[in-house]
Amino acid sequence: MRIYLIRHGQTTGDIEDRYGGDYEDHLTEEGKEQGKNLANKLVDKNIEVVFCSPRIRAQETAEFIKRKTGVLVEVVEDIRERNHYGVMTGMVKAEAKLKYPILVELLKDTKKTVDGGEDYETFKSRVVGAWNNLTSSDHKTIAILSHGGPIRLIFREILNKGEIKIGDCAYAVIDTDGEVLSIAETDGIEVQE
């Protein structure tokens, strides 16, 4: 199986410098252009289905792929972003730093949990379970359109590649024979040494 692991485009929360996570925001105009460019890159890749996060920003990105390729888009709840930021979700980062300085400091460790957030092990279990389910289908080529958090977790916990930098509408092409996973290509993803 070939898997296109894709991040959504730029959002309003990105340009407003907000703590994102598991909340709703839309693509910016730039994010829409990124989505169109992504769709053009994927047009001849024989993707059979796009498994998409339920968050608006992911669905808006998936819509560009659907329009260009005609591919089926299926919403999968468990590939949504982690609610890592708890009470700070959606808050401008500068405001959060003033209001919750201790929690902001806590966020420097990916595996720590902020009040009201989803703990790392629950998040890991959810994403790994979704990955295992989606990659055991009979399809030859799929896309998983998600967020930075789940994609980083997949690189860290499933692919054993450590930490990554990931851009808007970035993707990795992963091949699997059911046992061995190999990264065939990346676009906008950089593995950190």
Automatic annotation (TrEMBL):
Active site: 8 (tele-phosphohistidine intermediate), 81 (proton donor/acceptor)
GO MF terms held by the record: phosphatase activity
Family annotation (CDD domains): HP_PGM_like (cd07067)
InterPro entries: His_Pase_superF_clade-1, His_PPase_superfam, PGM_Phosphatase
Sites where the protein binds substrate: 57, 81-85, 93
Pfam families named among the record's database cross-references: His_Phos_1 (PF00300)
Protein name per its UniProtKB record: Phosphoglycerate mutase
Lineage: Bacteria, Candidatus Amesiibacteriota
